[in-house]
Amino acid sequence: MSGGPLLLKLEQHDRLSDEEKRVLENAISRIRVVEADEDIVHEGDHPSESNLLLDGFAARYKIFSNGRRQITAIHVPGDFVDLHSFLLRAMDHGVLALTPCRIAVVPHTMLERITAEHPHLTRLLWLNTLVDGAIHREWLTAMGRLSATAHMAHFICELFLRLNAVGRTDGDTIQLPLTQAELGDTLGLSTVHVNRVLQELRKEGLIRWQGDALTILDWERLKTVGEFTPTYLNLQHEDR
Amino acid sequence: MSGGPLLLKLEQHDRLSDEEKRVLENAISRIRVVEADEDIVHEGDHPSESNLLLDGFAARYKIFSNGRRQITAIHVPGDFVDLHSFLLRAMDHGVLALTPCRIAVVPHTMLERITAEHPHLTRLLWLNTLVDGAIHREWLTAMGRLSATAHMAHFICELFLRLNAVGRTDGDTIQLPLTQAELGDTLGLSTVHVNRVLQELRKEGLIRWQGDALTILDWERLKTVGEFTPTYLNLQHEDR
DNA sequence: CGCGACCTTGACCAGGATCAAAATCTGTGG
DNA sequence: CCACAGATTTTGATCCTGGTCAAGGTCGCG
Description:
By secondary structure, chain A is of the alpha+beta class. Helix content of chain A is 44%, strand content 21%. In chain A, strand 9 and strand 10 form a beta hairpin. Chain A starts with a helix and ends in a 15-residue tail after the last helix.
């Protein structure tokens, strides 16, 4: 039980057999809950299990000695936030719960077993980490070549589609439980500038954001502003 | 034969059995040569084989409609430049030969066979793509939170270590066959500013760069300036 | 009611972009 | 070996996006 969002996510990419679903669900050793603002995994850890996010939002981040922080990924339900620790061994970054998170824990021994016995499932898990990589590349281009406003628009488009893919949208509205400071750490901007950029998007009638609820008011124009094309998210269904 | 640099690279992470080495070498269907400034793979392609760089330098890049370009990775001998296309299917970016490149071609059917029959080797190939991801994350933090000078220093440190890992350094000197414009596309800077930053690093006595040959004159200070710590490159040897 | 977190605003500053032009360097054909 | 064209590097001047600093305002909560 409880592997729901991951199944949903893997099944976007390719069909899972009933046996594969069973294997995946049996790979979960326990469910844990992490409070908001707590680390799910610490930088430098050498974990022996990986964390699959079932509910809540999380962020991967790196901190510099002087306190500057960069968030390198935002995770939503269905994301395997540190599947890579299975092979990378040492965590080169921390993972923070942005909201209370419900997490399925998968021991690395189970992952190893999957790689030994279930090649197709292995490929889908591998694929999962490859999509993470594709998102990183997209963020790199957004960071390097888009204006602050465009970058913000791009980020919102992406998050909307990713949430939509796991059924966590409500019409044109998503939950966006980030402070403006955290958004700044995500986009590489100062908090002050995040605020101004958001005001601009609001003034232009592209979004509404009150409390946690962010509504996309003009999807087409938001996509244009953010130069957003969703192919990199690999949401199409193919044999893998 | 000819899988040399990849073997070298995979063996940094873990030991390969003789059989695994043989399998890997047999997976190569042919060797091809790509001229400098030619695409090795085009964005949008749906390739049926992956390219392992044996000699030369290559870059992954995305282009915007207005011609702006962002390079998201620099590849050196031993890098599997598009291993991800095995599972991602569509190329979400192009791969460009920066110099003449000698490439080993591995059909996806062979990769699929490896995933079916050689779990440990599969894990090492997966690991390869995970290290790519770790590098992307590091670039993201460098891009978001480092000054132009620090970012440049960081980039040079990384490239040096990666070349060193595959035996392509000559003392403190590496080959850096990028124009300043290409460096700008890599770091998200303008060509002009790349030039100024390089002059600063030279004036500070940190590097020398003439023609293709870049020499690190003061490794310690360069590391400090670039806030560089190499753990993310995962150059340690562990069981995987 | 009061405190702390967060958001908002304004004034000013600076890192890096842009524009333009000159200086080098490279390769090519004669 | 030279001349020349194109690419690349360098320099200077100016502009502007986004950072920094500082102060209020707002909201939720104990």
